[in-house]
Amino acid sequence: MNRAGLASVFGILLLGLSACSSSVGGEANPSRTGGPSRSATQSTSEMGTDGNSVPDSLADIAPCSLLSNDELSEYGTFPPGERDDRGVGRACRFQRDRDPTEPGRVVAVNLREEQGVEDVIEQGYGVQRAESNGREYAQVPGAGACLIAIGVTLTSRVDIHVIATEGRQKSCEIADEIGAIVEPRLPKG
To answer: H or E stretch including 160?
Structure first.
């Protein structure tokens, strides 16, 4: 899925969140433009929209390979990501270089090989769910933070977790945009 299509899926989730709805009705189905098409019989070892091949499974991916500090430059100056494995996932964490006059931001990409989108835990603000092009998504806002879960298989996912000092809504906007960068690099199972 291209970046605009994924942003549309997450935009629908944001609209549901900002309208204080506990769910988003209907099914998100943005059109695809560009990038490779994928049929149900094709291997997941294909080319992503960035021209690199898509790995066959999450086990083949290093968490810090999914996002670079250069790709985060729109949100401030970030040093390269650092491996930050905690709990059940393998993660890469980026913390913005902090100027006291600028907002603070932390971005994490977490590969969860044994937890699917259905396993996300609500953080007090509901869970918004969507599906597009055979992939499940969930947006889980929290206090000043937001998590976007991108389904890889029924029992695996990649989480984009953002904490922004500007609050929950800004955290979700940034997580949505980063999700659009990361999603084409993920296998589909």
So the answer is: strand 156-164
d(CA 70, CA 60): 23
Q: Are 168 and 124 in contact (CB under 8 A)?
A: no
Distances (CA, A) of 118 to 54, 66, 127, 157: 24, 22, 10, 10
Residue with tokens 């560009």: 34
Count the Cβ atoms, other than its own, within 10 Å of residue 95: 17
- The structure's pTM equals 0.75
Q: What's the CA gap between 182 and 189, in Å, rounded? A: 16
CB 93 within 8 A of CB 67: no
Q: What's the start-to-end Cα distance of the chain, in Å? A: 15
DSSP 8-state class, residue 97: P
| pLDDT digits 0-9 by tens, 135-183 | 999 999 999 999 999 999 999 999 999 999 999 999 999 999 999 999 9
Closest by alpha carbon to 92, among 77, 78, 76? 78
Could you give the CA distance from residue 20 to residue 65 in angstroms, rounded to a whole number? 35
Return the CA Rg of the chain: 16
Number of neighbouring beta carbons within 10 Å of residue 61: 21
CA nearest to 159, candidates 102, 103, 121: 121
